[in-house]
Amino acid sequence: MKLLTKSRIIVIRARAYAQFEDYTLNGANGKYTVIHNADTRRCYSVDLHARTCDCPACEKEGYCKHCAMVQLEEVVRERHEQWKAEWEAEREAYCDRYAKY
């Protein structure tokens, strides 16, 4: 496994973001199955904690678009939960404030 440059990581992440809608991600807590929507034989297991994916690109370089997709999915889920909690708190405060009217 070779050391990746920052520019190579950016290219890999850009590919992941561009192709994100082409894949389905199943899993949680860093362990996911990444399945290509058009070709379900292209199915890979990603473990962010172990920093592994069983695709050929990851075996060669140590990082791949599937790992980047899982990282993106984890951020999206975290932000969604954060937004949902904030929205529910605001809604509850609004209801409490105007319930007496």
Kindly describe this structure:
The structure is a single chain. Helix content is 53%, strand content 19%. It has 101 residues and is of the alpha+beta class. It has one domain. The longest helix has 34 residues, at 65-98. The chain is elongated and about 65 Å long. It starts with 5 loop residues before the first helix and ends with a helix. The mean pLDDT is 90.
Keywords:
19% strand; elongated; alpha+beta; 4-stranded antiparallel beta sheet
Helix content: 40-55%
Radius of gyration: 19 Å
Q: Could you say how many structural domains there are in total?
A: 1
- Secondary-structure element sequence? HEEEEHH
Number of E strands: 4
Characterize the main sheet.
Answer: 4 strands, antiparallel
Q: Distance N terminus to C terminus? A: 66 Å
What order do the strands of the largest sheet run in, or round the barrel if closed? 1-2-3-4
**Please, how many helices?**
3
The oligomeric status of these chains comes to single chain
Q: Structural class of the secondary structure composition?
A: alpha+beta
Give the CA-based shape.
Answer: elongated
Q: In percent, how much strand structure appears in the residues? A: 15-25%
Mean pLDDT: 90
Uncertain parts? none
Question: Which SSEs are present, and which pair or pack?
Answer:
Blueprint: H1 6-19, E1 23-28, E2 31-36, E3 43-47, E4 52-53, H2 56-61, H3 65-98
Antiparallel strand pairs: 1-2, 2-3, 3-4
Helix pairs in contact: 1-3
Task: Give me a quick take on this structure.
The chain is an alpha+beta fold. Helix content is 53%, strand content 19%.
